[in-house]
Structures are given as structure tokens and as C-alpha cells.
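Worked example 4.2. Below are the chains of a multi-component assembly; read each line carefully before continuing.
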Amino acid sequence: MSTSVEPRDPQATPEGEASQPTSVGRGGELVFSTISTVSGLSILAILAAVAFFLVLLAAPALTSDPADLPYGEFWQWVAPFAFGTVWAAVLALLMAVPVAIGIALFISHYAPRKLANGLGYIVDLLAAVPSVVFGLWGINALAPAVMPVYGWLNKAFGWFPPFAGGVSGTGRTMLTAAIVLAVMVLPIITALCREVFLQTPKLHEEASLALGATRWEMIKQAVFPFGMPGIISAAMLGLGRALGETMAVAMVLSPSDQISFELLTPNGPNTIAANIALNFPEAFGLGINQLIASGLVLFVITLAVNMAARAIIASRAEFSGAN
Amino acid sequence: MALTIRSRRMVSCVVTGFVGVMLAGCAGPSLPSPVEQTPPRECPPGYLMGAGSTAQQGVIDSSIATYGAACRGSNTVEYDGKGSGDGVTDFVNGLTHFAGTDTVMDAEAIERARCRCNGNEAWHLPMVVGPIALAHNVEGVEDLVLTPEVVAEIFTGEISRWDDAQIIALNPGVNLPSQPITVIHRSDASGTTENFTTWLNAAASDQWASDKVSKNWKGSGEGAAKSDGVATRVQETPGAITYVESSYADDHKLPTAGIETGRGVVRLDDASVAKTLAGARRTGQGPDMRLEIDAVPDDPEAYPLVQVTYEVVCSAGLGPEQTEILKDFLGFMAEQQTRDELAARGYVPLPEELNSEVRESIGQIRP
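Applying the procedure described above to all two chains together yields the following C-alpha cells:
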């Protein structure tokens, strides 16, 4: 957690160590600093290798004549999938973050100690469920169960564009996919938020309570301001998982290739990752390059989202109770 | 890459040898009687790897199992159902010894296959037929009849209810429910989609334009992944219809629609599929058995929606060891007993005439 609150710390440490004269017979210092430096550099090397691979294999699709591309003009083709990726992930976050904060607060500040421990384990267990199981749950249990609800939403709130249109006959819509994604990102966000909330300085909390604040007011005054950067980075980690999730979306969503905000119709655009998974086995020649190029687009989207999150955390850190 | 294949082969040889020893050791003292009844098959030793079409995976897997049992582990055959496109790519790159494909290779792939076979031609051998069924789930309706035009309009969303006047007109006396039609289609790229849309375009070009002929679905409806996925969704969704390889429709106990060709109603069964294949045109030469099936067959009793999947093999130049085992395995698949077993499992066997030609082609493969 300290990484996201004070991002500059880990970089400073190895440099400081390296410059200090450590040859006082303690070989462990050298070994450890070498190991951490190599680890730090290797993650950069891996990232660079992935980026290099993506660019190299995407280039033919980006440079060749659109008429030769098996799926049509590249940007026109990839736009709905890029939209679908972001749309599904954002919907998932909208549902998951409030619930995750609620669970985390319950565990850290409301629940009795024994219950809190047990609940923490259960949430962590949810993170260990493979995505194919979530996918199966989505198509076999969730989709049939939500169909009547979708019908009602469409009848009652059909004037609201996302609920408009002809309701799907199988329930495998964008909203169902987003609910599955929300359940999948819930444990990550909850676990991180819980840890952050537990870090709130006791003095801040007690000062707030001493001034006559109720528990909810104390949480508003002490816990949230302190935990805000942590909540944001937790949400961003969740977003990262939602953006890249392949299997569950490929199984649950009935995909289309058009940009549509409709949540209850079978017109939900596919996500980039699921689209690659569904089309790669039958792809050949330039088709492979085109699919990899869409992977590059996903890479760039994820990078942009993470940079935005970093910027928000950096600007927030100064105002939080952390210092 | 050659290294991978070699090391893999070594591993499997070791494994096979080990299993063989174990089997021999186990079978030695108490001779199992059922195995002894059929004379043991002489199988060439070695390793054969194929990859490709998922449509024929069921047939190939089942053949590999019976072949392995007949050979008592003296060799290893593997098939990776990763999709036709991948399968052909792996084959022309020399990663596998044969490919399974739903569609005939394009000119570029044929050229590359020639390089892979050391300058020899690659042949298409039709080994597995997969009729495409119009599987549906309409309450109380078993014998639905549709024309190609109506099928096209259903799959474009033009006809959206089961009690549409056009469907009622084709099915007098059938109690069609007042229910919306849910079209289910493949969400992954698929040779089945390509074959189905090719047929729609050929048989009902006014309703199904040629720009909708593709491996990726361009009609309306809801997508599901893989053949099993679409069949399961239809089974679960009242009022649903899909196009799927017939063995999946059987597996899920879904009724299939008959097709009114204008000269009578054709239903999907072994006989109507055999008639279609008998009338198929040859586009390859000699042992290269590429078939083209008319969207509207000349024979009024022929079922028009038949997909033929091929094994792509080197006519020569694969190397002596692999050629031996390839010929033996494909020959085994074309044997009457194997075909009977496949038929018993719900697959449609290749008609007699075509099968004997395939056997001839297999015989002409040289190392």
C-alpha cells in the first residue's frame, strides 16, 4: 500500500544503498541490492519486450491498404471494441466500487473482530475463483435470473436510452457482462480498501470522535481523506483487470460490432480482449496482425488509464491526511 | 520450430514405449479375451500430429481413441482442434503433419503447402461430413418446415415471430406459438458460419446479400461461443433457432427444421446427405478431392446444407516414418468398421462411393 501513497520511496532506496560504501563485510547488502535492481530492471525489460512485440506484429495491419484487411478498415473496426472495453469496465467499476468501499468499511470499522476476519478471508477467496467459473456462472445462472428484471427495467425506464431497445431473449447483454466483471473486480478493490482504511492513524480517528463526531462523521473526516489515494489506486487496479478480462466476457456477452449504449439489447459491443479470443483461432495472414494491432490499442488504453490514475493520486496526496 | 517437433516426438516415443511396456507387462499373465477376438493391428511406430478444424474434432478424437486401442499404443496420433485457419498455418509452417480444415485452402496457402511438402502437391481429402442443422426450440413443434427465403429473413430479423404469416403458410396444421424468435449465432469466427451464409446467399440472394457471407456473423440475433455454446443457448431459450453441426443438435435433443426447396421438403438424415455428396462437383484433380456442393442441389432429395471438412496432407515428401503412420491412420478412419462406429455415435459417415475414392487417394500418398 505504501507504494501508492508514496510512490517515490522504493526508487530512492536502491540508489541510496548503491551509493553508500557497503563493503563492511556484509555481503548480504550487495546480494540483496543486486537482486532488487535486477528485478526492477527486468520488469521494464518485459514491458519493453511486450510493447516491441505488439508494435512489430501490429505494423503490417496499420500500414497496409485497408482493402486488404480481412476485417475492414482498422480504426473503424477497432473503435466499437475499444468503446465496448471501456464501457464494460466503467460500468463494472460503477457497481463494484461503492460495494467494495462498503464491505471494506464494514470489515475495518463496523464488524466485530471475529466476523471481520472471516469476512476478509471470504472476500480474498472470491479473488481466487478462475474467470471461466465466473463465465459459466454468468451464462448459466445470472443471465436467466436477470431476464425478468431486464424486462421490467425496459418497460418502466425505457425512456432512459441505456434501457431502451428490444430486450435480449437470453439475458446475455452488456449489463450482465458488467455485473460479472463487477463481481470479479470486487475482491481486489475490497482487499486494498480494507488495508488502506486500517492504516488510518488512530490519532486522527480519536481526535474526530473526541470532537463529538458520530462514527459516520469520523469516517468522513478521518478515514476517507486519508484513504482517498488508496481507494483510487484500488479502483484503478480493478479497472485494469476489468479492461483485460477475456474469458468471462467472451462467454457471457452476446457481442456486436457497433457502438451502442444499450444495456439490455443484444447490441452490446464486444471488448477488445474477448474479440481477440473469439477470432484468433480462425485468423490467418493479415487477420492475425489486425487482431494483434487491436491488442496494441488495448495496451495503450490501459497505459493511459494507469497514467491518469497516477496523476490523480499524485495531486491528491498533498491534501490527504497522509502527511 | 523443427527442434520443438523433434523433442516432442522424442518425448512421446519415450512415453509410448513406456506405456507399451506397461501394457505388455499387465496383459501378459491374464490374457484379456475381448482384445484377442480381433486380430491385432500392425501399426507403424512413431508420432503423428495434426491440428485444425473444430468441426471435425469429435470424429478425429473418437477415431484416435479407437486407433490407439487397436494399435495398443505402438504409436501416437494427436489432433489439436484449434480452428481451421490456425491448423493450415501450422501445417504449412511444418509444425504439424496434417491439417484439418472446413474450407479449401486459398491459392497462397496452396503455394506455401507445396514448399512444406518439398515441392509436392498437398491434397484435400474429404474425411468428415458435417451437415448443418437448423436447430430450434419451439414449444410443441417437431416438424418445422422453412424455405431458404424464410430462413434468411428469420436470420436477418425480418421475420421476428413464430406466428408470422409466412411460417404459418409453410406449416399448415402446426400449432405455432405467438412468441418472438430469438436467433442464436456463433460469436467466434467459424467455418460453419461461412458455409451457412454462403448457402443463404446462394439460395436466397434477395434476402441475404453477398456482403453478409463471412466467417464472422453479419446477421441479427445473439451470439454464443462455439458449437456447443449455441446449441446450449437454444436448448435453454424458448423460441430460439440456430444453425449448428447436426451432431450438436442431436446431443442437445433439438428438433431440426426441414427445408422446402421448391421441389419438396428435404429433411436432414444420412440418406439425404449422401445424395448431396453424390452430386457434389469436383474442383480438384485426381486424388486432390476438393468438393463443391451446390446451394440448390440437382437432386430434389438432397439436403443442401452440408459442410465437408478435409484433411490436408502432403501427396509426397513428408518423410518415410510419418507417411507410414499418416497412411495407416487415415486408412483406419476410412475402414468400414470405424465408419460404422462413428455412425453409431451420431456422426454422419462419408457415403460409400466417396469413401472408396478417399481410400484410393490415401493409397497414392508417397513418402
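Take a moment to check your reading of the output against the notes. The CA atoms of residues 76 and 264 of chain A lie 24 Å apart. The radius of gyration of chain A is 23 Å.
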